Amino acid sequence: MHNKANIINGKEIALKVKADLKADVEALKREAGVIPCLAVVLVGENPASRVYVRNKAKASEDTGIKFLLHAMPLDTKEETLLGLISTLNDANDVHGIIVQLPLPQQIDSDSLLEAIDPKKDVDGFHPYNMGRLVTGSPCMQPCTPLGVMGLIDSTGVDLSGKEAVIAGRSNIVGKPMAMMLLKRNATVTICHSRTLDLPACISRADLVVAAIGRERFIKGEWIRPGAIVIDVGINRTAEGGLAGDVDFEGALKRASFITPVPGGVGPMTVAMLLKNTVAAAKARIKATGQRASFKRA
Ligand code: NDP
After folding, report:
1. Centroid of ligand 1 to alpha carbon of 187 (angstroms)
2. Catalytic residue flag (residue 123)
């Protein structure tokens, strides 16, 4: 087979999402006098976390969203962080709160994530939101799988009845991804490190979502001809570049659509964080009846 897959340009799709959000943010400011605000709690000096936070800050500012960074020292006590979360929960002008993971050892991540007001949980990690995702009810949805759905939708392919195979079962990617695909009526398989025959599972998929964190682990020849391949993985290569979990060049020859790394899922994850923040601000305006002139669309 020599026909090449269409490359899904995540960067471009994310730019469009952000442009739409910018218009939304301007309307909120104009009509309700509200500026959506995202608060980020960062603990310690993890270099990767600092890069992620910088990207989120820039994307927020580009969109007109206020970005509040709470950078805390590495040895911060859990109760201090819980106090900060409580203050942010109570702040009328803060609409979204995220805690940048990973956290240092002395902090129990679950306790901290569970302390966030579910209405401000723009990462969608709170068990309340996770539970509602499982039951198919409206909720804050985790940004990476939500971004993946946006990329799949850009292909125009209807997922109903399709075989979807997810490699990876983490709480932030694999599991919520499965729920979103189920909601779209795909037949979903979740693979993980104990899966006996990953190539066999992948080879029957109409849609592959790779989220295992292993460089080019999923080989081109495993891909069913015509499949959609979404590569969530971000791996640093020996040469200092970035590579996904899928052998891109090999899969390109068989897939119908494929995402590159970088420039695929990554930009969409950040765009979805902003989208959730704007949605949280809108929901708050609705709930508190702020400014009568605001159009309740
Ligand atoms: P985790 O490390 O939390 O989970 C990895 C999953 O992959 C686990 O379920 C693990 O199985 C499974 N796995 C590992 N090795 C294999 C294997 N050989 N065969 C099958 N399954 C395997 O990772 P995350 O979900 O947090 O992230 C996955 C990747 O996505 C990483 O590269 C990460 O950097 C990237 N990422 C990218 C984002 C983006 O915005 N683009 C956002 C979030 C993550 P088991 O459960 O059995 O251990």
Report:
1. 21
2. yes
Question: What's the pTM?
Answer: 0.96
CA-wise closest residue to 81 among 70, 95, 92: 70
Dihedral sign, Cα of residue 197, residue 198, residue 203, residue 207: positive
Cα–Cα distance, 151 to 43 (Å, whole number): 31
Catalytic residue flag (residue 141): no
**What is the Cα–Cα distance from 240 to 144, expressed in whole angstroms?**
24
pLDDT at residue 293 is higher than 60: no
* CA-based end-to-end distance of the chain: 49
Strand duo 257-258 + 6-7: pairing? parallel
Pocket residues: Cβ below 6 A from ligand 1: 144, 167-170, 172-174, 191-195, 198, 211-214, 232-235, 265-266, 269
Catalytic residue flag (residue 105)? no
Residues 136 and 131: their CA atoms lie apart, in Å, by 9
Q: What is the rounded distance in angstroms from the CA atom of residue 12 to the CA atom of residue 173?
A: 22
Which one of 24, 121, 123, 231 is the catalytic residue? 123
Rounded mean pLDDT, 64-72: 98
Q: In angstroms, rounded to a whole number, what is the distance separating the alpha carbons of residues 277 and 122?
A: 6
**Ligand 1, atom 41: nearest CA belongs to which residue?**
266
Q: How far is the CA of 40 from the centre of ligand 1 (A)?
A: 23
